[in-house]
Amino acid sequence: MSDGSEITGAGPSPVRVALALEVLGDLAVVQRSLAGLTTYRLGGPAAVFVEARTVNDLRLIAEARRVSGLEVLVVGRGSNLLVDDLGFPGIAVRLAEGFEQISADTTPRLTAPSSPGSTVLRVGAAVALPVLARRSAAMGLTGMEWAVGVPGSVGGAVRMNAGGHGSDMAETLVSAEIFNLETGEVSERERSALGLRFRGSDLRDTDVVISAAVELEPGSVEDSTAKISEIVQWRREHQPGGHNCGSVFVNPIPGELSAGELIDQCGLRGTRIGGAVVSLKHANFIQAEESATAADVRALIEHVREVVLAATGIALRSEVRIVGAGDLA
Ligand SMILES: Cc1cc2nc3c(=O)[nH]c(=O)nc-3n(C[C@H](O)[C@H](O)[C@H](O)COP(=O)(O)OP(=O)(O)OC[C@H]3O[C@@H](n4cnc5c(N)ncnc54)[C@H](O)[C@@H]3O)c2cc1C
């Protein structure tokens, strides 16, 4: 059964790849390993890889997609991706320099900021969430402290509606600037048009978030810094280090019933398949050891899901985006 979190495709067709390369020229790298771009550090290469620095680069990618028929995968900081051992048979795109700014937002808006003293920041999609958390705190703004422990990019965080410590992107997001790979056009979409929900959104693979506008309240640098230290400390105490992608399964009833509790009740902590292990420290984390393959992690995700379903009747939904492989059983 697919839970909609996979991106699939046949092996890279040399003809399609050649068509894409004709458009992309020097921008493209062929057969670039994606493992190092993910926190799992696993998986094979992208048939074509592009680092996009400008909207013009994205326009070329849109054109390459059109002429080749290859799928496009946007890779943020790879903290929610499990790339198949055989890789991704399409065009993988990572946003680079041109998408790393944080500045005051100057977009003309129909709606005034919801509170008179607030500040709206325009944040590039490639900015790392911990950087946004620390930079906004240092500016005397409060509202993004929770993000210090989430190792994703702003673009990935909008798409996933990342969150933690009682908050999420939806709390402060005013709008997001989206590049549409089908039309090659950029548009600003208000929060209400993004379909943000618990750890998900209505954004599709053809919607590339290029920046986000977040509205933050005036705060105290001291208080925000203290909150950030507390969160960092909490994460160290409660979550494992090493190679993982954070929580594997979405909590079935946010705030009431956690996936970790269910996995724990089923006695699955420490369960291993090959080099993949259910963390002893946090049952909703699956760790990849040195010898792990993406297939090990995937098999363990499926195993955990099956055991929990058989024992509780609850079908856990994987939060992890599985790239380049078939449906999850
Ligand atoms: C140790 C650890 C702790 C974590 N803790 C949390 C937590 O507390 N809360 C939480 O919500 N998550 C958590 N995560 C998961 C992860 O950090 C979030 O889901 C994050 O939002 C993913 O961002 P990313 O840039 O890494 O996206 P990626 O993993 O690179 O991609 C995830 C999805 O977003 C898409 N995407 C990426 N960038 C863009 C873009 N610019 N435009 C459009 N689509 C894009 C990708 O195509 C993919 O579908 C944790 C992960 C780790 C490793």
Question: Which keywords apply here?
Answer:
329 residues; alpha+beta; Uridine Diphospho-n-acetylenolpyruvylglucosamine Reductase, domain 2; Uridine Diphospho-n-acetylenolpyruvylglucosamine Reductase, domain 3; Uridine Diphospho-n-acetylenolpyruvylglucosamine Reductase, domain 1; 3 domains; four-stranded mixed beta sheet; 18 strands; 25% strand; globular; disordered N terminus; binds flavin-adenine dinucleotide
Q: What would you note in describing this structure?
A:
The chain folds into three domains: 6-98, Uridine Diphospho-n-acetylenolpyruvylglucosamine Reductase, domain 2; 100-227, 2-Layer Sandwich (Uridine Diphospho-n-acetylenolpyruvylglucosamine Reductase, domain 3), CATH 3.30.465.10; 259-323, Uridine Diphospho-n-acetylenolpyruvylglucosamine Reductase, domain 1. 27% of the residues lie in helices and 25% in strands. It is built from eight helices and 18 strands. A hairpin with a 7-residue loop joins strand 16 and strand 17 (286-288). Helix 1 (14-24) runs antiparallel to helix 2 (55-68) and helix 3 runs antiparallel to helix 6 (221-238). It is globular. The structure holds flavin-adenine dinucleotide.
